Amino acid sequence: MKVIGINGSPRKNGNTSILIQIVFDELKKEGIETELVQLSDKNILGCKACRACHKNKNKRCVNKDDFFNECLAKMVASDGIILGSPVYSAGVTSQMKALIDRASMVLAGNRGLLKHKVGASVVAARRGGAISAFDTLNNFLYSKEMFLAGSSYWNMVYGNAIGEVEQDQEGIENMKNLGQNMAWLLKKIHCN
Fold first, then answer.
1. Residues 6+ away with beta carbon under 8 Å from 21
2. Where in the chain does DSSP place strands (E)?
3. 130, CA 20 to 30 Å: which among 91, 137, 144, 174?
4. Three-state DSSP state, 157
5. pLDDT band at 21 (very low <50, low <70, confident <90, very high)
6. What is the mean pLDDT of residues 37-65?
C-alpha cells in the first residue's frame, strides 16, 4: 500500500510538511509506503473550465504545461491521499486550490478514479481560518467517493514560525492518531 501526501504550502519544509511527516511516521510503522509531493516548487495553473477532460475521457487535463497531470497520476496510483495546506486568507493556498479545482474537473469527467481510496487532510494555522481550509480539503475528498480517516479532533495544528507546530502537543498527538487510524482503515480495505 502507498499513501501520498501533497503539501500545498509554498514553504517546502514548513509546518504543513512537518504535519504530513508525523502522519507518515505512523503509516511507516505499519509497513505502508509514503511519498511526499511538494507543490512549493511546482507550477499548477488554475482550471480554465474548457471541459476537454470530459470530452477526451483520458484521465488527464488538456493543459500539459505544468505539474498537474503528473500529480493527478500519483493520486490515482495511490491507495491513500493526504492533502495538507497552511491557512491563507481563511482558506487553502492558491497552489492547493488550483490542484483541487483542476482535479475536480478531470475527475468529474472520468468518474471513479479516486473511489474507495483513503483520504485525510491536515491544516497548519497561525490562528484563524483553519476550519474553512479543513472543510475545503475534506469536501474535495468526500466528493470523490473517498473514505476519510478521522482523528480525536479536527486535523489542524497551530503555529506560526517554521517548527512552531511541534509545540502544539494536542495537535501533534492528533496527527499521530490520524496516521494510526489511516493505517487501520487502509488495512481493513486491502485485507481481501
1. 36
2. 2-7, 33-38, 80-86, 118-125, 147-148, 156-158
3. 144
4. strand
5. very high
6. 95
